[in-house]
Amino acid sequence: MKLDSDDSKIFLDILEQNLDSANLAVIGLGNPDRADDGAGIVIASKLKEKYPQSVFLETDRSVEGIVLELLERNSIKTFLFLDASDFGGKPGEIKLFSHEDAKRFIPAVSTHKVPITFLIEIILKQGRKAFLLGIQPGSLEFMGKISPAVEKTVSILENLLIKFIKSSSAD
Known about the structure:
The structure is a single chain. This protein has 171 residues and is α/β, with parallel strands linked by helices. It is 42% helix and 15% strand. It has helices at residues 5-18, 39-50, 63-71, 99-105, 116-125, 148-166; strands spanning 24-28, 55-57, 78-84, 94-97, 129-135. Strand 1, helix 2 and strand 2 form a beta-alpha-beta unit.
Protein backbone atom coordinates (compact mmCIF):
# COMPACT_ATOMS: atom_id res chain seq x y z
CA MET A 1 0.00 0.00 0.00
CA LYS A 2 1.35 3.40 -0.95
CA LEU A 3 0.45 5.92 1.73
CA ASP A 4 -1.19 9.15 0.71
CA SER A 5 -4.09 11.10 2.17
CA ASP A 6 -6.70 8.65 0.82
CA ASP A 7 -4.86 5.53 1.95
CA SER A 8 -4.07 6.92 5.42
CA LYS A 9 -7.67 6.38 6.59
CA ILE A 10 -7.72 2.87 5.10
CA PHE A 11 -4.45 2.01 6.82
CA LEU A 12 -5.66 3.40 10.15
CA ASP A 13 -8.74 1.15 9.79
CA ILE A 14 -6.46 -1.85 9.13
CA LEU A 15 -4.48 -1.07 12.28
CA GLU A 16 -7.65 -0.73 14.35
CA GLN A 17 -8.97 -4.08 13.06
CA ASN A 18 -5.75 -5.98 13.82
CA LEU A 19 -3.97 -4.31 16.73
CA ASP A 20 -4.94 -3.52 20.30
CA SER A 21 -3.53 -0.02 20.78
CA ALA A 22 -4.24 -0.05 24.53
CA ASN A 23 -1.92 -3.02 25.09
CA LEU A 24 0.63 -2.42 22.33
CA ALA A 25 4.42 -2.55 22.27
CA VAL A 26 6.12 -1.00 19.24
CA ILE A 27 9.65 -2.13 18.37
CA GLY A 28 11.68 -0.19 15.82
CA LEU A 29 14.18 -2.26 13.84
CA GLY A 30 16.86 -1.49 11.32
CA ASN A 31 20.25 0.00 10.71
CA PRO A 32 20.26 3.81 10.51
CA ASP A 33 23.66 3.64 8.78
CA ARG A 34 22.10 1.98 5.73
CA ALA A 35 19.75 4.63 4.33
CA ASP A 36 16.17 3.27 4.17
CA ASP A 37 17.02 0.35 6.45
CA GLY A 38 16.79 2.83 9.33
CA ALA A 39 13.13 3.70 8.66
CA GLY A 40 11.79 1.59 11.54
CA ILE A 41 14.24 3.20 13.96
CA VAL A 42 13.35 6.72 12.77
CA ILE A 43 9.62 6.11 13.25
CA ALA A 44 10.04 4.43 16.63
CA SER A 45 12.32 7.23 17.86
CA LYS A 46 9.58 9.76 17.17
CA LEU A 47 6.94 7.58 18.84
CA LYS A 48 9.19 6.98 21.85
CA GLU A 49 9.19 10.72 22.58
CA LYS A 50 5.44 10.50 23.27
CA TYR A 51 5.12 6.90 24.48
CA PRO A 52 8.39 5.90 26.21
CA GLN A 53 6.79 3.00 28.11
CA SER A 54 5.54 1.22 25.01
CA VAL A 55 8.07 1.99 22.25
CA PHE A 56 11.49 0.36 21.98
CA LEU A 57 14.48 0.60 19.63
CA GLU A 58 16.77 -2.11 18.36
CA THR A 59 19.60 0.44 18.61
CA ASP A 60 19.12 0.62 22.40
CA ARG A 61 19.50 -3.12 23.06
CA SER A 62 18.90 -6.50 21.46
CA VAL A 63 15.50 -7.22 19.96
CA GLU A 64 15.33 -10.61 21.64
CA GLY A 65 16.03 -8.94 25.02
CA ILE A 66 13.26 -6.43 24.40
CA VAL A 67 10.79 -9.15 23.40
CA LEU A 68 11.60 -11.42 26.34
CA GLU A 69 11.25 -8.53 28.80
CA LEU A 70 7.94 -7.46 27.27
CA LEU A 71 6.57 -11.00 27.41
CA GLU A 72 6.94 -10.77 31.19
CA ARG A 73 4.48 -7.85 31.15
CA ASN A 74 0.99 -9.30 31.14
CA SER A 75 -0.37 -5.96 29.96
CA ILE A 76 1.32 -6.26 26.55
CA LYS A 77 -1.02 -8.15 24.23
CA THR A 78 0.20 -7.01 20.81
CA PHE A 79 3.67 -6.47 19.36
CA LEU A 80 4.25 -4.29 16.31
CA PHE A 81 7.67 -4.48 14.67
CA LEU A 82 8.60 -1.60 12.34
CA ASP A 83 11.24 -2.48 9.77
CA ALA A 84 12.42 -1.95 6.22
CA SER A 85 11.40 -5.12 4.39
CA ASP A 86 11.96 -6.04 0.77
CA PHE A 87 8.61 -7.52 -0.21
CA GLY A 88 8.87 -6.54 -3.89
CA GLY A 89 6.93 -3.29 -3.66
CA LYS A 90 7.83 0.20 -4.78
CA PRO A 91 10.04 2.27 -2.46
CA GLY A 92 7.95 3.71 0.35
CA GLU A 93 5.12 1.18 0.06
CA ILE A 94 4.05 -0.51 3.26
CA LYS A 95 2.60 -3.87 4.18
CA LEU A 96 1.27 -5.13 7.49
CA PHE A 97 2.49 -8.72 7.80
CA SER A 98 0.79 -11.30 9.97
CA HIS A 99 2.92 -14.23 11.11
CA GLU A 100 1.87 -16.32 8.11
CA ASP A 101 2.60 -13.45 5.69
CA ALA A 102 5.96 -12.82 7.33
CA LYS A 103 6.99 -16.47 6.97
CA ARG A 104 6.26 -16.28 3.23
CA PHE A 105 7.88 -12.91 2.52
CA ILE A 106 10.63 -12.45 5.08
CA PRO A 107 13.66 -14.71 4.55
CA ALA A 108 14.70 -17.07 7.34
CA VAL A 109 18.21 -15.68 6.91
CA SER A 110 18.09 -12.21 8.37
CA THR A 111 20.27 -9.23 9.12
CA HIS A 112 18.93 -9.47 12.67
CA LYS A 113 20.76 -11.72 15.16
CA VAL A 114 17.52 -13.59 15.75
CA PRO A 115 15.11 -13.67 12.77
CA ILE A 116 11.97 -11.64 13.36
CA THR A 117 9.79 -14.57 12.25
CA PHE A 118 11.29 -16.66 15.09
CA LEU A 119 10.56 -13.91 17.63
CA ILE A 120 7.00 -13.66 16.31
CA GLU A 121 6.58 -17.42 16.80
CA ILE A 122 7.69 -17.07 20.44
CA ILE A 123 5.23 -14.21 20.96
CA LEU A 124 2.37 -16.20 19.42
CA LYS A 125 3.16 -19.24 21.61
CA GLN A 126 2.64 -16.96 24.61
CA GLY A 127 -0.89 -16.20 23.41
CA ARG A 128 -0.07 -12.70 22.19
CA LYS A 129 -0.38 -11.09 18.75
CA ALA A 130 2.53 -9.91 16.62
CA PHE A 131 2.76 -8.04 13.34
CA LEU A 132 5.50 -6.64 11.17
CA LEU A 133 4.89 -3.29 9.51
CA GLY A 134 7.24 -3.51 6.53
CA ILE A 135 8.41 -0.49 4.58
CA GLN A 136 9.79 -1.21 1.12
CA PRO A 137 13.29 0.30 0.95
CA GLY A 138 14.59 2.11 -2.09
CA SER A 139 18.22 2.46 -0.99
CA LEU A 140 20.39 0.51 1.44
CA GLU A 141 23.48 2.58 0.68
CA PHE A 142 25.96 2.62 3.53
CA MET A 143 25.89 6.03 5.23
CA GLY A 144 23.27 7.11 2.68
CA LYS A 145 20.26 9.29 3.37
CA ILE A 146 16.73 7.97 3.50
CA SER A 147 15.25 8.08 0.00
CA PRO A 148 12.51 10.67 -0.67
CA ALA A 149 9.78 8.03 -1.09
CA VAL A 150 10.64 6.32 2.20
CA GLU A 151 11.08 9.65 3.97
CA LYS A 152 7.54 10.63 2.95
CA THR A 153 6.19 7.29 4.21
CA VAL A 154 8.11 7.65 7.49
CA SER A 155 6.53 11.07 8.08
CA ILE A 156 3.02 9.82 7.36
CA LEU A 157 3.48 6.68 9.49
CA GLU A 158 4.80 8.71 12.42
CA ASN A 159 1.62 10.78 12.44
CA LEU A 160 -0.70 7.82 11.86
CA LEU A 161 0.86 5.71 14.58
CA ILE A 162 0.81 8.60 17.06
CA LYS A 163 -2.89 9.04 16.28
CA PHE A 164 -3.51 5.29 16.56
CA ILE A 165 -1.74 4.91 19.91
CA LYS A 166 -3.30 8.12 21.26
CA SER A 167 -6.79 6.80 20.45
CA SER A 168 -6.67 4.57 23.53
CA SER A 169 -3.75 5.89 25.55
CA ALA A 170 -4.07 7.54 28.93
CA ASP A 171 -0.94 9.62 28.20
